[in-house]
Amino acid sequence: MKNIVITDDIKYVGCDDKDIDLFESQYYVPNGISYNSYIIFDDKITIMDTVDKRKSGEWVNNIKKSLNGKEPHYLVVSHMEPDHSYSIKILADMYPNMKIIGNNKTFDFIKQFFNIENLEERKVLVKERDEINLGKHKLQFFMAPMVHWPEVMVTFDKTDNILFTADAFGKFGTLDTDELWDCEARRYYFNIVGKYGAQVQMLLKKVINLDIKIICPLHGQILKDNLEYYINKYNIWSNYEPEDKGIFIAYASIHGNTKNAVTELKKMLKESGIEKIITADLSREDMAECVENAFRYDKLILAASSYNGSVFTPMHRFLIELQERNYQNRKLGLIENGTWAPTAAKSMKEIITSMKNIELYENVVTIKSALNEESISKMQELVNEIISKS
To answer: What is the pTM of this model?
Structure first.
C-alpha cells in the first residue's frame, strides 16, 4: 500500500493497476490506472468508495491494515461504475454494522448489482447539500448527475477543505507515473466524461465558491497545489473551447496516397507560417488520443479515402467518436481521395452537419488516386483559406 497521507485524519487506501491492458475494455493505458479510495479517521470512521474487482484483495488488505482492528461507521458511494463499486458488497459483508451513504439513484444501482443484507436498514440517503457530522469532520454532498453516470455525487469535507470528486479531475496512469497531469487527464476527460460538458459546468458552478484546498479524484493523482490551473482546464474542456491554437490533421489512408497528400499539406502549412501542426494516422494510432487532440486544437483537417461508396472505416469511426462527445466550436477542412467516384467528403459532411458551431472551410480538396498539379493547387487554396481565417 502506498503511504499517502492526505491530511492528519485522511489516508489513501487505493490501489495501482499496472497490469491492465484496456481500461473500460477500450482505452489503452500504457501507464496503468489507479483506483483511489480514502479513509477519514474520526468518531465515525468513513471509507470513501471502493475499488475494481482486479484489485479488491489488495484493497481489503489496505483497509484492514489501516483500520487496525477498528470498524468503519460509514461507506460513502460516490459512483456506481464497477471500477469503483465492485467491492461494496465485500466491505458490507465484512462490516455488517457499517452504514452506506448514497442518493436515491445510488441505491437503485446497488440493488441491481448486489444483494446486500439489511440494505434498507443500513442506507443513509442524502440529497443536494445535505451534511453528515463525523465528529470533527463535516461532509457535505453535491449531486453531479451524468458526470458521468446519473447517480454520481461529490463530497466536500468542510473541516479539511477537501473535495472528493468521483471521476471528475481523474486521469489515466498509476500514482507513481511520472508525467504531467494535462495529457492523460485530457484524454481521460474527453473520452469518458466529454459528452457531458453541460453537466460538468453545472457541477463547477456548485463547488466553485467552496474553499477547496485538495482535490481527491477516484483515478489519478491527488491535486494539492495550483488548483486554479486544474479547475480552469476543466472549465475550458467542459465549455468545448479550444485549449490551444493549432491544426490537427487526422487521416485515413488505404494504400498511402492520402497519407502522401497529408505530408504535402503539412509542408505547405509550415511554409505558410503555421507552427503547431499535429498529424495522426487513424488506422494505426490510439483513437482516444486522436479524440483528445481534436478537442485540444482550434482547427481540424480530415483527409480520407473513399470506401464502399462512403468513407474509409477509421475516419467514419473517428467522426462518430467526435459526434458522440458533442464536438463543436471548431474550424474544419476536408480532403477526400477516390479513383472512380470520390465519396469521402460527402459522407464526412453528413456526420459533421449534426455538430454544433462547426465552420467548414469552403475549399474541399478532391484527389483522384494520387496527388497531381491540380490537387496540389487545390490544397494551396485550402491553405490560403486557413491562413485568411486564422
So the answer is: 0.95
